[in-house]
Amino acid sequence: MKKVYAKEELCLNCHLCEVFCKTAHSLSKDVIKANKYEQPAPAARVKVYGDNKLSVAVNCRHCEEPKCVKACITGAMTKDKKTGIVSVNEEKCIGCMTCLAVCPFGCIQTGKFAVKCDLCRGEDEPACVKNCPNRALVYTDLGGAEV
Amino acid sequence: MKYIIIGASAAGLACAEQIRKEDAAGSITVMTGEHYLPYSRPTISYYLKGALKPSDMYLRKPSYYAANGIEILTDTPAREINRENKTVKAGRKSYAYDKLCICTGSKPFIPPMKHVEGKANAYTFLDFAGAKILKQKATPNTKAVIIGAGLIGMKAAEGLSKICQSVDVVELAPRILPSILDEASAKKVQKYIEEKGHIHFHLGDTVKEAKSKDKRITSLILNSGKELPCDMLVLAVGVRPETQLAEQAGIETDRGILTDPATMRTSDSDIYAAGDCTVSVDMLDGSKKILALYPNAVYQGTAAGSQMAGGNILVSGTYAVNAIDFYGLRICTCGLINAQGPQYTDKTAQHGDRYKRLIFENNRLVGFVLINAGENAGIYTSLIENRTDLAEIQTDIFDTPSLFMFEKAQRQKRLKGESV
Lengths: 147, 420
Known about the structure:
Chain A has 147 residues and is of the alpha+beta class. Chain A is built from 5 helices and 6 strands; from the N terminus they run E-H-H-E-E-H-E-E-H-H-E. In chain A, helix 1 (16-24) crosses helix 2. By secondary structure, chain B is α/β, with parallel strands linked by helices. Chain B is built from 10 helices and 27 strands. A 5-stranded parallel β-sheet of chain B has the order 3-2-1-7-20. The two termini of chain B are 34 Å apart. At the A-B interface, strand 1, helix 3 and helix 4 of A face helix 8, strand 23, strand 24, helix 9 and helix 10 of B.
């Protein structure tokens, strides 16, 4: 499946991926409103770690055998058989964060519900990749080894 | 191939799904004494407090089972396993199996208390049916008393506190949530819950006897001499593995059903067991214990299902991991929380309402307690599971964990999504 891969040697620590992830997952879909005014504030599902010397944007690996899906106590976290996307059903999620406690990559954020990357649900290119100014994020089905 | 699974909760469902993944043709029958299709047991407290609709408690859509060739027999409690004929008796029928998995879960443990047994207003809180009764009976004027401040008791207390004005919790241990919290963190959590939930705790105390009228409990006398008015008693002292069927069939048990810890096979080579009914071997200290936790049940059920279908998935690592919230306070724990011995050390960092306690065995992380400080906790969990030497860690272990904890090659591996 197509996944987002991060290249730390190209990351500028600019956090624009977070800004546009928030926008894509906001009600208004407006970059200013989403990042400054909207309440409840939309959450970024990609997160930049590190500093200006070395940084990288981390988001869900959409694992083949996702630990978060196995550990989910409500059946809210599922991996789509066709697309391979791992996502949360917010109606069923109780926000217990067992998924977060088992994700070895640190890709789930705390919120009222588990907050995580949904690959912008079928968009041609996820918002983080589209708006990365230095192509430090790549969207490909070649696998991580080829990036 | 005919597969039968007894029990339709976390382990039973995981087992059925794994069998189907590896054997497209075999017949899979899951029998449960409950009236409902597989639902999430831990969500009964969310149902009680009104945070979840009953229809959102089900683990899969009703149409899922037929589509995947998994037959679920509800209202069908298994009564007997006949190992010679390889049949399971349930209701009036007998079902033949080639491979069987016992996923009977837990039963409530009810300590002897004078004049409590058989009273109309004494309840347990373990399944959907039990939760429905509590929800139906509880009113704002109900004086609810819960015995037991473990995970189940505290979740019952939280749920009832949203309905009833008076909720008391009696616990024999000197602290709440003794299985997941140490003394210092338990005190903090207790204070928070007292303020948010107006729950009254009676710790280091227990019920000596009940006073009742017309078969209904009216008050409870505690060991300390206190008397608590009571018109709803919830017994949540603890759970024990449900092993009756296995024992009657002569399968080896010792508190729980004994299995090979990797394959989940019991002393009968065609019978497997998974979930709360089994004895687990904690990979972190090699001790045998009952790990009645959801992820553990799923991992075991998956391995059992694979082995039954001739596959090769094993239980990889068994340890406690738990995440739970009370009135918005998030508690995440893993590993050996109450480790005793000279090889263990621990360190605590506190900041406002954040609390982080890490437990070490020499140069390895073996446990954590995180209160409102659970960011990326799964990275800590992976350090525990992989027995990572902390000398390899690039950042302060008390910093929010991130992939920068690992040196470049390890970090790259994770960024590429290779399994770790």
